[in-house]
Amino acid sequence: MKPRHKKLAIAGGLLVSVGAIAALVLNAFQSNLVFFYSPTQVAQHEAPQNRTFRLGGLVEQGSVKRDGTQVSFVVTDTAKTIPVRFEGILPDLFKEGKGVVAQGQLKEGVFVAREVLAKHDENYMPPEAAEALKRAQAGDQKLGQSTVGVKP
């Protein structure tokens, strides 16, 4: 093999290696992304099936039911509601009528959460959840429905 062919073979091998490494890194990054969806988006089947995502909104009043460490509640964005099931210890700030973000998967119409996060004070809500509530309230007002008493 001539020296020129050796250099081309090495350059080609390097190029293929860099391409393979880039493809693996991008694939790993893609599979670790977790997107946020509102209850309205989940009800409209915009959320992925059999993939982890985040569901955010308000915990509906009177919906929290506890059975040992098993907790079920309903998350709403004032337009649609999604039932949630969680096994574990909830954050201290978890309350009915307050903002929540749950991470898990949708199974047979019920969101099975692996992690539940609650807002940390009266003024904070994750930006995605606040935006989803604003959009849902705007949709309610267009339909002539009342959203009295709901603060984003």
Short structural summary:
This protein is α+β, with helices and mostly antiparallel strands and 152 residues long. The chain is 34% helix and 29% strand. The chain has two domains: 1-33; 36-143, Nucleic acid-binding proteins (OB fold (Dihydrolipoamide Acetyltransferase, E2P)), CATH 2.40.50.140.
Overview of this protein structure:
34% of the residues lie in helices and 29% in strands. A 5-stranded mixed beta barrel has the order 2-4-5-7-6. A hairpin with a 4-residue loop joins strand 4 and strand 5. It is elongated, with a radius of gyration of 23 Å. It has 2 domains: 33 residues; 108 residues, OB fold (Dihydrolipoamide Acetyltransferase, E2P) (Beta Barrel), CATH 2.40.50. It is built from 3 helices and 7 strands; from the N terminus they run H-E-H-E-E-E-E-E-E-H. With 152 residues, the protein is of the alpha+beta class.
Key features of this structure:
alpha+beta; 152 residues; 2 domains; OB fold (Dihydrolipoamide Acetyltransferase, E2P); 34% helix; single chain
Give the C-alpha Rg: 23 Å
Q: State the shape.
A: elongated
The average pLDDT score comes to: 82
Task: Report the portion of residues in β strands.
Answer: 25-35%
